[in-house]
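Archive transcription. Copying these from loose printouts into the bound notebook so they stop getting lost. Printout 1 of 2:
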Amino acid sequence: MAAAVVLGGGLTGLVAAERLSAEGIEAPVFEREPEAGGACRSIERDGFTFDFTGHLLHCARPETEGYLRDLGVWDELAVHQRRAAVVVGGRQTPYPIQIHTAALAPAVRRDCLLGFIRAWARQERDGGEPADFSRWVLERFGDGFARHFFVPYNEKLFRARAEELSLDWVGRYVPKPTLEEVVDGALGLHDQPVGYNATFRYPRRGGIRLLPDAVARRVPRLHLSSRVAALHLGERWIELADGGRVRFNRVVSTLALPSLVDLIVGGLPEEVAAARAALRWVRVLNVALGVEGEAPSPEHWLYFPDRELPFYRVGFPSNHGRLAPAGCHTVSIEVSLDPGGVEVAAEAAAAERAAAALGLLDPAKVRLRVQTVIDPAYVVFDHHRRQAVATLRGFLGERDVLLAGRWAEWKYSAMEDAILDGMAVARRLSGGR
């Protein structure tokens, strides 16, 4: 019987198993795909390298750096200053838009500046905590920023109305500037980096798979192409798709929370089934293209709040990594989709046509196409999520199933968090060592 069984060989699961192994604790990993890494993988074809979707390392914690140095990959990660922009009404301005409105159309700039000043004045008088994302944006940034960027962009990304979204996810991901910064930004005077992703690290070569591959080499019992078919909590064993059985003392699950619950055999209490049904998410279609010639933009990525465009973000990954043959570049087009049977090929074709219409792509120069779907991709932070997750976490925790990582804990987090989550659950299982 294994001391702990790790479900899912993404970055969090690999780090958890590697740390447990270093403490002498047996922790086999079961991963359904033929290679480790989960969403943190790269595809190499005809000289091009494509990540499954945008993966950049924003390293803020010393323990993360220490761990990556120990793995021997730290010096392979080049440091980049973020070059990102937002496209509003056909005009491009640096990200974050809050402090970079000078390049926008005068009417848009006026809307944003006046709206922010009015919101700032109201906050000085009223204070209080808004109830949803729509109200939060209006009170924090004003109606101009809300109308031109925050509401349409996030409604496109999460495929939900802004009023349906809670505030559980904003935090460090949506920084609030000062009044002086907004005014400076409207006058073109702001030039300081802002946000948690102002700088990032990325492998000098080979794509983001460098990180999970380095961890996987230290995991002694990594079982690939091993899909878990059922989870028998009462009897403490998992059933694999090939008919194999593995007994356990505890489970570390990095699987998406709905998928994990769906594996449980024997029926669920009514409140647990209701919590599972309450979870919402979106898929992301990533259209990755290998294209001849130089990239049409020096930016690393561009945000598109325009509701008429099918994609929310377009990136040029070869601007920050050696991911294309000489004389070529890569393009990444990201489209948010509801769960279910949307025709991916039609969505991908529409995204390419829209990118070409904006001058971001020359269809005649496309040499290679790779389409991947991340499912789930983004958790929808609606007003039911927090209680639903608490109910499921409590039910599973009472049965020695620990949740670790972005999709298992049903949250929004970055790559550094994935590493830290794996380290944290390993410490918990090893008694804090």
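Printout 2 of 2:
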Amino acid sequence: MVLELKLRKVGNSVGIILPKEALAHLKVTEGDSVSVTDGADGSLRVSPTKADVNRQMEVAQDVMKRYRHTLRELAK
């Protein structure tokens, strides 16, 4: 699916409006959350947010922060 969307002013921000086809493809509806992540080629990827994945990412970031020196040594 390739969509060309226009940026629109939303309050003090700029946003895009996802058409019904994109929402159906993502299997999301109004009020759901989506995640935007960096792609390896510099692109952005939009995907539905899953609560369990968010919690796992928070735990992983906490572990990396607390053990950053140990992880740095192990990476050598």
